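A student in our group prepared the protein record below, which I am reviewing. I have pasted the whole thing underneath without changing anything:
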Amino acid sequence: MSRRELSKEFLLMKKLLREYYSKKPLEEPIYIHKREIAVQSLEDGVYIRHLSFPSLAILYNYILSEKTPLHLYYSSAYYESPSADKMDMKGWLGSDLIFDIDADHYPGCDKTLYICVGENKAYEEKVSQCPESGEKPLAYSLLSSRCLDRAFADAKKLYSILKDEFGFKDIVIYFSGNRGFHVKVLDEDAWSLTSDERREMATYISLEGFELHRVFPPIGKREPYILLSQREYGLRKRLLKYVVEKNIGVKTGAFIKVPIDEVEEIINDLRIAIDAVVTMDISRLSRFGNSINGKSGLIVKKIDINSFSKFNFLEYCPWEGVVRIKPLIDFSGLPVFDNVVNLKKGLAFDIDACLGLYLVFKGLARLVNIERAGVRNV
C-alpha cells in the first residue's frame, strides 16, 4: 500500500465514503449496461475510464471493495461496447441531452479566492501560480445560497423551454453537488441528435448572437415598438409570457404594444447562461444521481421542480455530527455558503460535520477525527 493509503486521513475518508455508499443510495440510469462508467478513486486520485457493469449491484461491489469513488460518472451516451478503450470502437447508439448551469457565472456571484496553501496566503485577484512556492493555487468560489437560487431559476426556465418549445417530456434537474445545476433530457427523441444540432439548441436557449430586429421587426420610426398577439410561438411566446407576468406594455385590441427599447432589456432577462460545450458533447460523462461530488462532499441530488423554494446547502449534505479538522491556512471569516468559519493553521478544532468536511474536500483542512460523525439517512 502507498503512504497515502496508510495515512490516517485516508482511512477516515475511506470509512465515511464507504459507509455512505453501503446505504445503496445511487440512482440507476436506464440501460446502465450500455453506458461507460468512470471513477476517480480515493486510493490513487486518478480517473479510471472505460469501465462497464451489467448491473448496479455489481457496480456497488466494485466501489465498496476495490475503488472508493471521489467522483462517480456514467456516460450520457449509450454504446454497443461501452468498455472499449477507444471512442471509435464503442459503437455510439445515442446520447441523453444535457445542459449545465453554473451559479458563478452571474454578476456578483463570480468572486473567487485563490489560496496558496504552502504560503498560507489567499488572493482576491486571480493568480495562476503562487508567487513564492510556484504551486498552483486552490480556487475557492465564494458562492452564496442567493447565487444558487438564481441558477435554479434559470434551470426552471430552461425546463419550461425544453417542455413547451421543444416538446420534450422526460426532463430532470439535478444539483451538481458543487456550484450549479444539470438539466437532463432523457426522451428517446433526443438520443439521435447530432453534436451540431445540440449546438443549435444551445444557441437558441442562450440567445447567442441574437439579432433583435430580425426576430422582432419594429413598427414606427419615432417611437418604435412591436406588437404581440395571444398566439405566439417560440421566443415570441416566451416574450409574451414575460410581458404579461410583469404587466409591461399597452393593450391595443387583441395585441400588446411593447416599446422596442423595453424588448431589448427583456431579451437580456430571457437569456440562459448554459455551457454549450457540455450540451454539444455526445460522449459527456455525467455524475450519478445521489453520488458524492468529491469537490465538495455534497450530494448530486435530483430536484423536485415544484417543491424547491430556496437553496440550503445542508439539504445536500450527507454527513451528521461533529468532526475534528486541522486547517491548512489562517483565515478569519471564511464564507461557506451562508455560514462563516474561522481557521487557524495547524490548530485542530471540532466543527459541524457538514462544514468541516466541505473544507476537507475543498483542500483547506485535514480530517483528524470522525468518532462523533457519520452518515445521515438521505
